[in-house]
Design goal:
Elements (H helix, E strand, L loop, with lengths): L6 H8 L5 E4 L13 E5 L1 E7 L3 E7 L4 E5 L8 E9 L5 E9 L9 E9 L4 E7 L4 E8 L9 E8 L2 E7 L6 E7 L8 E6 L8 E10 L5 E6 L2 E5 L6 H15 L3 H13 L5 H4 L2 H16 L1
Helix pairs in contact: 2-3, 2-5
Length: 294
Amino acid sequence: MESFKLCSIVCLLASPAGYAATYDFESDAVGSVPKDTKTTVGKVHVVKHKDIGLCVRLDGSRTVAVDLTKIPKLKDYSVSWRQVYDKPSRSGVLLRSKLQMGAKHKGIGEGYLVQVNPVTNDVRIYTMYPSVYKMIKSAKLSASGVGAVSYYQASIVKDTITLKYSSDGKSYKKVLEVKDDTYKDAGLTQLTEGWGRSVGHVYYDDISFEVIKGGQVTQETGGGKKQEVKPVVMSKHQLKFDEIFKRRVVAKDATALALLAKQKKAGSKLTISNTGMAELIEQWQVAEAMKDVK
């Protein structure tokens, strides 16, 4: 059996505490453009990697950027992901991003770029202006090399941007932190790669986000106005349950249909807490994983 197909279970254990697996690509078809993404330059598609299972790879000419549209506009939040590469290539996330048509690299937003750069074995944070980008801090990082899975967490709280690294997805070490107040408003999140170097050699999985306490979600209300809305972040188990529950209903699973009937009768959302689903979700995950490897 191919153990990497058990990713749907492993990712829950490997994800940082408090995170929800926002993008795990388990329901995306190989070769397809992953759901809830918008490519602004280059291409992105789902592939299967021998070490991390279903994941995404970015392809293009030296620079690629993808909006992670499932993550709302946020001000204080963190993004985590795991990746593996077969050739050194710059990669990272853009926080508090807003797209500028006159950007130095077409399709790249204006905001804070947290970049992992295995080319020179260091990590960097940039401010991305419309026509130029400026490195505001860098640090050396002896990260895992070619073929090894690495885990990263990039966060921004008020004027502080932080990057953490882990080789196992459990124990994280702060490797870079800097204060800067250039971008104060909430923004989008982009997955980026290249920046003048070759692309298509990094594989990304389990891209997650968390609203940090006190952080705000910004919602456009039309006419250029904005309003702050209270963030709702479900636990990783609830998100996974919702995902599997929907698939089980479509497949006409008897237990799932019975729970759906109960939900409709109660007139409320089906949750782990109000149905005692903690054990059942684990059973469903194991069942689906075993079905995949048969």
